[in-house]
């Protein structure tokens, strides 16, 4: 998410917050952005990958903003679907600069 009250014309890494742990981009790296400024950091993604599969349950995913049944992570009032989890993990794995591993 974007920090409340931030200046959209002058965004710094401190203005991007992980939707799930609330840490900003300067400390929580790497970051993957979803729709409407939603963000998930590498640590929360790793947590989502390690979480046990949950039974289908209806929720709105913070990253794709769709109504989903495949909950991967629920933290900080935000929810992540398994599709976005896997897509974000692939994005980070393909980016050599991210240094991210599962
Ligand atoms: Zn996070
Ligand atoms: Zn999603």
Provide an overview of this structure:
With 102 residues, the chain is α+β, with helices and mostly antiparallel strands. The chain has one domain. It is 22% helix and 19% strand. It contains 2 helices and 6 strands, in the order ββαββββα. The strands form 3 sheets. It has a two-stranded antiparallel sheet with strand order 1-2. A two-stranded antiparallel sheet has the order 3-4. α1 crosses α2. The longest helix is centred in the C-terminal third of the chain and has 13 residues. Bound molecules: zinc ion (2 copies). The site of one zinc ion has 8 residues, from α2.
Topology, element by element:
Elements: E1 31-33, E2 39-41, H1 42-50, E3 59-60, E4 67-68, E5 71-75, E6 78-81, H2 82-94
Antiparallel strand pairs: 1-2, 3-4, 5-6
Helix pairs in contact: 1-2
Bound molecules: zinc ion (ZN) (2 copies).
């Amino acid at each position: 998410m974007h920090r409340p009250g931030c200046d959209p014309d002058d965004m710094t890494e401190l203005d991007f917050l992980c939707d799930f742990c609330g840490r900003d981009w300067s400390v929580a790296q790497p970051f993957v952005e979803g729709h409407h400024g939603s963000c998930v950091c590498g640590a929360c993604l790793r947590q989502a990958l390690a979480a046990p599969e949950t039974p289908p349950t209806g929720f709105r995913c913070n990253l794709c903003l769709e109504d989903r049944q495949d909950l991967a992570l629920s933290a900080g009032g935000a929810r992540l679907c398994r599709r976005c989890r896997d897509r974000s993990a692939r994005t980070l794995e393909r980016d050599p600069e991210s240094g991210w591993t599962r």
